[in-house]
Structures are given as C-alpha cells and as structure tokens.
Amino acid sequence: GARGMCGRTRLGASPESVMGATGAKRWRRREHYRPSNNLCPGRQSPALHRGDAPGELELTTMAFGLVPSYTDKAARPDFFRMANARSETVSAQPAFRRLLAHRRCVVPIDGFYEWLPEPQRKQPFYISSAACAGDRAGE
Fold first, then answer.
1. For labelling alongside 57, which of 15, 47, 119, 134 has CA 20 to 30 A away?
2. Half-sphere exposure of 44 toward its Cβ, with a 13 Å CA cutoff?
3. Does residue 134 carry a pLDDT above 60?
C-alpha cells in the first residue's frame, strides 16, 4: 500500500554550521532561524537557493512547505498538504511541475522522522546520516 512521507525533520545546527555546510555566502531572514528537533510544515526553516550573482548560493529562512499560487489568498495556508513530492511523480503534479525548472531549493536538515503505526499511537523513528553526527556532537 501507499506510505506517507516524512513531514517532520530536525535541524539543530548553529547558524554558523548551516552556513559552513551549505557554502552559502548570504542568509536572508537569518534572525527567524531557530534550531529545532521537531520542524514541521509551516515552521520557519532555512532554504538554500541560487543567489543574485552567477554561481552564488544563499539561504533564506522561510516557511517549510509549498502554498501553490492558485491558492485563495484569503485562505489560511495548508503547509502540510504540499510539504513533500516524490521524485518519480513530481513532474506529473501540476503544483510542482511548473516550478521544477526555475523555482527549486534545498532544505538542509540533520535528519527526519518516519512513523511506525503501533496499537493506540504512532511511534516516531529518527533517521539521519553518519555525516550529521559530528554536527550534533558540539551542541
């Protein structure tokens, strides 16, 4: 059957560590970044994207998740609805298809949570790469 995708992530790194790991030269809205063990759609998180200068990368702290342009401007945004896209189907989804060529970013994280259904509740399991372990050791 179909499985849900992770909607919870962790980024506990200091701003300096995030800048160093991403190679960004600038960070817009840096003051809105707060390290967190539980980032969910709608929360402020850094996103890495092209900068103004050719070949330059920069970070911008923004709300995690996509609110499509066709969403009613008066409606409350539902960041959970469009927080993930599967690589094998993203080009077929209208909300993502037109963004692929020019409106992409990378959201740096230390790891993410997957949920295992258990009787009476869901149990979160944290998944990260060994490369992230060094960043967490200094916190």
1. 134
2. 11
3. no
